[in-house]
Design a protein that fits this description.
Length: about 190
């Protein structure tokens, strides 16, 4: 996320939707401020595509939907909106919405140097308030590594660190896969 312009006026959510529709880039909307989404690297894009494809294929034929970085998420209980790299929702309330979803069970962010601190901190704090979210996966674009923030039945979040040779286990969509699967053909 790139900082909002100081001289840009605060917008209502309705103004934000109308304004962003006319833009060439995507913008996150937090507390009335718009923030430009930075471009990602080739590795960032390839990893996100691999994960989107993996999840979509795994969930084919079911009622869950896999979204890419064009799918806006409403932070539950707020008028804030973000664009994660990959999302999965299995919630019926999201099936009839057209501009965003609100109840993802899985969110993935592919890390870049400019957004890593925000993805691990402020963004996770926002996402973790969602009662439906079970897995928040942060994937490195510079090494074979991922961190999974996973909600336990008690509501506590634990962090599982994955490295080369590990099997990532996503309880939200009942999927386990070798971490190398998302890095095949990628030069780090």
């Amino acid at each position: 996320m790139i900082a909002a312009k100081d001289d840009f006026p605060k917008l209502t959510p309705e103004e934000y939707f109308a304004w962003e529709e006319k833009q060439l880039e995507k913008y996150e909307y937090i507390e009335g401020e718009v923030y430009a989404m930075g471009g990602g690297s080739k590795n960032h894009s390839l990893i996100a595509v691999r994960l989107t494809t993996l999840f979509s294929n795994h969930l084919e034929g079911g009622s869950c939907e896999t979204g890419n970085s064009d799918l806006r998420i409403n932070i539950v209980g707020t008028n804030d909106y973000t664009y994660p790299d990959v999302t999965v929702t299995c919630d019926k309330r999201d099936q009839t919405t057209t501009q965003y979803i609100s109840y993802p069970c899985l969110i993935v962010e592919v890390l870049s140097q400019s957004t890593e601190a925000y993805d691990r901190g402020g963004k996770f704090r926002m996402y973790s308030q969602n009662p439906v979210l079970q897995d928040y996966l942060l994937v490195s674009s510079t090494e074979v590594a991922a961190d999974l923030y996973q909600k336990k039945e008690t509501g506590e979040w634990i962090i599982v660190n994955y490295k080369e040779g590990d099997i990532i286990k996503l309880k939200s969509i009942d999927l386990s896969f070798n971490i190398e699967k998302i890095y095949r053909g990628i030069f780090l």
